[in-house]
Amino acid sequence: MASDVALIAATMAATPFLQAVATHFGNRLAGAVDAGAREVLRRFLRRQAEEHRDEPTGFVHVIHLRTEHGSQIEMTVNTPPEALALLPAVCDADDPVSEADRRPQVPVVIRWRDDRWQATTVRASGYMAAFDWDAEAGEWREHHFRRPIFRG
User: Which of 69, 83, 85 is closest to 121 using CA atoms?
Assistant: First the structure.
């Protein structure tokens, strides 16, 4: 059963990962991708993840990337090509909330959800901060919350 399988994470720096993707796929990720190309991408991501896995054994499903700004990107080996095509711009962008404006030791976490990159963290004030990546503008767009999730 799938629920009985331990999913192992692979952790690596974002820049070398993106360089490997660019070397292997070039600009092909930006164009139309058929089902066969999606399977090739899945195999490539799985191979990259297995080379950097955190545990010595196990099936790698989750990839954790660290950007130079300190954000954590969580993605799976099934991340679609259109998401990977946007990832270099996401990684090059400044964090949507500076370290000084975040709760201590709470990173910005970026995930591909609902067909877009989303970032979340907690502001120093205790309010949740959530953002969507606007590919056209090349910046993060914030969602505003009314209540803090942490007090004090």
Answer: 69
Question: From the DSSP assignment, how many helices (H) and strands (E) are in the chain?
Answer: 3, 7
The structure's pTM equals 0.76
CA distance 101 to 94: 13
Of the candidates 50, 8, 42, the one whose C-alpha atom is nearest the C-alpha of residue 24 is 42
Alpha-carbon span 85 to 21, nearest angstrom: 9
Residue 46 phi, psi dihedral angles, 5° rounding: -60, -45
| Distance in angstroms (rounded) separating the CA atoms of residues 70 and 102 | 12
Band of pLDDT at residue 2, cut at 50, 70 and 90: very low
In this structure, the number of other CB atoms found within 10 A of the CB of residue 22 comes to 13
Rounded to 10 deg, the angle between the 81-92 and 35-51 helix axes is: 50
Whether the Cβ atoms of residue 22 and residue 91 lie closer than 8 Å to each other:
no
Q: DSSP state, 100? A: G
